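Re: that chain you flagged

S.,

Sorry for the slow reply, it's been a week of failed gels. I finally had a moment to sit down with the sequence you sent. For the record, here it is as I used it:
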Amino acid sequence: TEGGMFVAIKGAKVDGNRFVPAAYESGALCCMSEDKPGEQKKAYIQVKDCLQAIKDMAAYYRTICTLPIVGITGSVGKTTTKEMLASVLSTHFNTLKTLGNFNNELGMPLTLLRLREEHEAAIVEMGISDF
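Prediction finished late last night. Pasting the structure tokens below so you have them in one place:
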């Protein structure tokens, strides 16, 4: 996103570092990566673990946000419940909600990082893992 930060996450099949040059070309102001930036002359943040860094940023951001946040979890019906509750709340409040069912360990922190001053409430869908 223009004016944003690109995070180069290494996946099982694709290494996000391959997209760093394209991110800068698309207007990213900064990139976060576990790798050294090479010959890049642009702003970058090198971290030990990109996913953990995103989680840490979201956890901190949550501590400074004062709006009410509703978390929805469970084995069945999370997305439907989130959509219904967001529909009701949004009639009276500027409400942020998890996009689609992006409720994993990356999606939840990214949802929190989308919070802005104009939001008055948030609905966050959280998938359960490791049980």
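What I noticed first: Residues 86 and 92 are 10 Å apart (CA to CA).

Talk soon,
D.
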